[in-house]
Write a structure and sequence with these properties.
Blueprint: H1 8-24, H2 39-50, H3 62-77, H4 83-94, E1 105-106, H5 110-115, H6 120-123, H7 129-140, H8 153-171, H9 175-193, E2 206-207, H10 239-242, H11 244-258, H12 263-274
Antiparallel strand pairs: 1-2
Helix pairs in contact: 2-3, 2-4, 3-4, 3-8, 7-8, 7-11, 8-9, 8-11, 11-12
C-alpha cells in the first residue's frame, strides 16, 4: 500500500481484506511484545538459514520469498518477535533443503527441471533490480495464452514474486544473495518459455499431480488491484487464492515501479494472472 501511493479508500479496503485473511488463519495477536529481537539480529539468523537453500530452485522460490518478505516486514517494525518466533521462520526456510523445484510443469518433468543447466553469461547480465525487473516483465509480455493452472498462471505469478523477493534482498544490502538466486530463478524462466507461444489447439505436454487436460484459459480481470472495486469482492470463499491475491499484485506493481516503461506491454497479461 505504502509503496504504491494508494488512495485512502483502496487502502482501507485492502486492509480489511488482509485482516479478514489473518483472522481466517487465526494469525492475529499470536506474537506478544516480550523480549523482541532487534532487526539486525533477526536478519543474521534468517540469512544464515537461507544460505543452505539459495543456490537451487526449491518450490518455485518460496524459500527466498518467505525470507525476503519476513525481513522486509521486520525492517519496517525494527523489532518483532522473540527468539522462538524468529527460529520458527528460520526453520521454515531450512525445511526447503532437498525439496523439489515444484510439482506442476508444462513441457518438463520435475527431474528435467532439476537438471536444467543455466548459461553463465546470461546469469551475469543482472547487476541490479532494475535490470532484473525489465527482464522479468519482458518475459511476461511474451505469453500468447495464460491458462488457469498451477503449471501456468500460478507459475507465472511466482516468477513475478520470486524475482521480486530477489530484488528485495538487493534493496536490503544482500548483494551476494541477489546474485546467487539468479540461477534458480532462470530455471523458472526457461521452463515458462516453453509455454509462451502456445495456441488454443497446441498439444500440451503436462506434468502435474494437480492440473488436468484440457487446461482452461484464464479469464481476464476487468478490475485491477489498484482499483477499489477489486478489493470489494469476497475472496474468503477460496482463501484469497492462498494469499496470491496480495502477493502477485504486490510483486507485479513493484516490478512496474522499477521499470515503468514495461507497463503498457504487460498490464493486459497481468489481468489474466490475477483473475480469480
Amino acid at each position: 500500500m505504502k509503496d504504491n501511493n494508494m488512495e485512502e479508500e483502496i487502502t482501507r479496503s485492502m486492509y480489511s481484506q488482509t485482516k479478514m485473511m489473518l483472522n481466517n488463519q487465526k494469525l492475529v495477536g499470536i506474537i506478544d511484545s516480550k523480549e523482541e529481537i532487534d532487526f539486525q539480529s533477526a536478519e543474521k539468523m534468517i540469512i544464515k538459514s537461507l544460505e543452505h537453500t539459495i543456490d537451487k530452485l526449491h518450490w518455485v522460490g518460496h524459500n527466498v520469498i518467505y525470507a525476503a518478505l519476513s525481513l522486509l516486514a521486520m525492517k519496517e517494525l525494527q523489532k518483532w518477535g522473540d527468539n522462538q518466533a524468529i527460529e520458527g521462520i528460520t526453520n521454515l526456510i531450512l525445511s526447503f533443503r532437498k525439496t523439489i523445484p515444484g510439482r506442476s510443469w508444462i513441457g518438463f518433468t520435475t527431474k528435467e527441471v532439476k537438471q536444467l543447466s543455466i548459461n553463465d553469461e546470461i546469469e551475469s547480465e543482472f547487476k541490479n533490480p532494475k535490470q532484473l525487473s525489465k527482464f522479468i516483465l519482458k518475459e511476461l509480455s511474451q505469453f500468447n495464452i495464460i491458462y488457469r493452472a498451477e503449471s501456468h498462471h500460478d507459475l507465472i505469478g511466482h516468477l513475478l514474486t520470486f524475482s521480486h523477493a530477489i530484488n528485495i534482498m538487493y534493496d536490503l544490502g544482500h548483494i551476494d544473495i541477489f546474485h546467487r538466486a539468479i540461477r534458480p530463478l532462470l530455471k523458472l524462466v526457461y521452463v515458462l518459455r516453453a509455454s509462451q507461444y502456445l495456441m488454443p489447439n497446441t498439444e500440451i505436454n503436462l506434468h502435474s499431480p494437480i492440473d488436468r487436460l484440457p487446461l482452461i484459459e484464464s479469464k481476464r480481470a476487468y478490475v485491477l488491484p489498484t482499483e477499489n472495486q477489486f478489493w470489494l469482492k469476497d475472496y474468503s470463499a477460496f482463501d484469497w487464492d492462498f494469499g496470491h491475491v496480495f502477493k502477485f499484485s504486490y510483486s507485479y506493481f513493484d516490478h512496474i515501479k522499477r521499470a515503468p516503461e514495461y507497463k503498457d506491454i504487460t498490464l493486459e497479461k497481468f489481468r489474466f494472472v490475477i483473475n480469480t
